């Protein structure tokens, strides 16, 4: 009888330690927090494990650093929009490249120090974005230098950059 009880106890312990199968329904609870603001649209973002968007976004920033419109053209969509510090553009890729080439003509150099990056995709796969955090040291041809901290949100579609929103933090004045 003792052997039977011991075997029964071991079997019960073994059964209790087994993981339960999921019933196929998502058991995550909806967020019922009463925030002070209501979103018009909740996109439900997830991390994007495909590295092509990170590659396109960081290549775009590298082309800025290298003052290189030839390689920049390779990562841009046919129509683009850019919102930078004091600059807005919406139009075709050739129009943007012509404008940015004029700006590059004023610059001696850019130096980028990348801090962090993240690629996300909406759960319905309708939107893809890459966020970049970095420091930029720019020097104009007349020798003026400026250092800023930047945050970029870069919108991509089919591996091409459609747009960029840039947020700049200038250093505090002493």
UniProtKB/TrEMBL annotation:
Keywords from the UniProt entry: Signal
Signal peptide range: 1-19
Record's protein name: SnoaL-like domain-containing protein
Taxonomic source organism: Pedobacter fastidiosus
């Amino acid at each position: 009888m003792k052997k039977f009880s011991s075997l029964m106890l071991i079997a019960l312990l073994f059964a209790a330690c087994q993981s339960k199968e999921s019933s196929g329904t998502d058991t995550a609870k909806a967020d019922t927090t009463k925030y002070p603001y209501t979103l018009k649209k909740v996109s439900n973002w997830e991390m994007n494990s495909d590295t092509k968007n990170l590659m396109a976004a960081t290549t775009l920033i590298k082309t800025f650093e290298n003052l290189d419109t030839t390689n920049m053209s390779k990562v841009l969509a046919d129509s683009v929009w850019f919102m930078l510090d004091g600059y807005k553009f919406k139009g075709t890729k050739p129009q943007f490249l012509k404008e940015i080439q004029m700006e590059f003509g004023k610059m001696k150099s850019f130096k980028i120090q990348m801090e962090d990056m993240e690629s996300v995709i909406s759960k319905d796969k309708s939107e893809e974005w890459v966020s970049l955090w970095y420091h930029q040291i720019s020097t104009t041809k007349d020798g003026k230098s400026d250092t800023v901290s930047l945050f970029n949100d870069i919108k991509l579609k089919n591996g091409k950059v459609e747009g960029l929103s840039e947020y700049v933090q200038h250093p505090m004045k002493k």
